[in-house]
């Protein structure tokens, strides 16, 4: 048989196989195709979301996951388990790879793979051959003998707020809320060391208030979270400019300008300004003194009533 005829037979056989195959499952992919972290330490916890996608979701498929990372297999798990089903009609589903480093882990580098197989489980027509597809996720993890403090600031925002108001002689300030989204890149819980705001008039000529805090919510390692800090402010209704600085130790991690809109009291539905905690030290001292005075008066009244009742009993 000539070489040309052999080639023709191979082509015909290939076309025949493809005509019988269940090609519905063609077009499977994963993104991203890796799980990488170079800042882990003992007791670290890390998650990586992997998206499984397919071009044609006309039938359900079974997904089988096999973890092969020498020395770290027991640390790694899949949120859906090592076997799960992608229902008919779903083109893309997330799969979370979880890494929990034990407290006795050896320091070093751990490399391996996570293999994903996709097996059709829907009803196939007689004579069709189901295609088993697969993909590979590369794993590269470093467990270090040190702690790392690092973060990245993604977003900042100051929502509209209301001006403060007076009740009798007491001034209750407005509540300025500074919102930011922080990604913790280190392997310990972390937060900015300080957030500072300088509030200027709309022309940025006069400094009206300086607000700062070091009481900031900490974020878990390798996590991204929106956090907020709040400040009492005596700004009247109007437009202002705020210069913000977010500190990482003694360095500035992010700085810039934000517009601040202060609306008249009672304008924003559901808005809550500051209560007692926002009062000035003078106002707090007055209220506390008044409270102590009222308590003393009540004690005196009760004491007198008790004495009166005792005398009355003796007379009887």
Written account of the structure:
The protein is α+β, with helices and mostly antiparallel strands. It folds into two domains: 3-143, Immunoglobulin-like, CATH 2.60.40.10; 151-273, Immunoglobulins (Immunoglobulin-like). The chain is built from two helices and 21 strands. It has helices at residues 3-20, 281-315, and strands spanning 21-22, 28-31, 34-40, 45-54, 61-68, 76-78, 83-86, 92-100, 108-120, 129-130, 133-143, 151-157, 161-162, 165-167, 170-172, 174-184, 194-201, 207-213, 224-233, 238-248, 251-263. It has a five-stranded mixed β-sheet with strand order 3-11-9-5-7, with no helix packed on it. A five-stranded mixed β-sheet has the order 13-21-20-17-18, with no helix packed on it. Strand 17 and strand 18 form a beta hairpin. Residues 11-26 have low confidence and may be disordered.
Task: Give descriptors for this structure.
single chain; alpha+beta; Immunoglobulin-like; five-stranded mixed beta sheet; 2 helices; 47% strand
Question: CATH top level of the largest domain?
Answer: Mainly Beta
The termini sit apart by 136 Å
Q: What value does the Rg take, in angstroms?
A: 33 Å
Count of distinct strands: 21
Which regions are unreliable across 5 or more consecutive residues at pLDDT < 50?
11-26
- State mean pLDDT (0 to 100 scale): 84
Q: Approximately how much helix is present in the residues?
A: 10-25%
Strand arrangement across the biggest beta sheet:
3-11-9-5-7
What structural class results from the helix and strand content?
alpha+beta
Number of separate structural domains: 2
Assigned CATH architecture of the largest domain: Sandwich
CATH third-level topology of the largest domain: Immunoglobulin-like
Main pleated sheet = 5 strands, mixed
CATH homology-level superfamily of the largest domain: Immunoglobulins
Please provide the ordered H/E string of secondary-structure elements. HEEEEEEEEEEEEEEEEEEEEEH
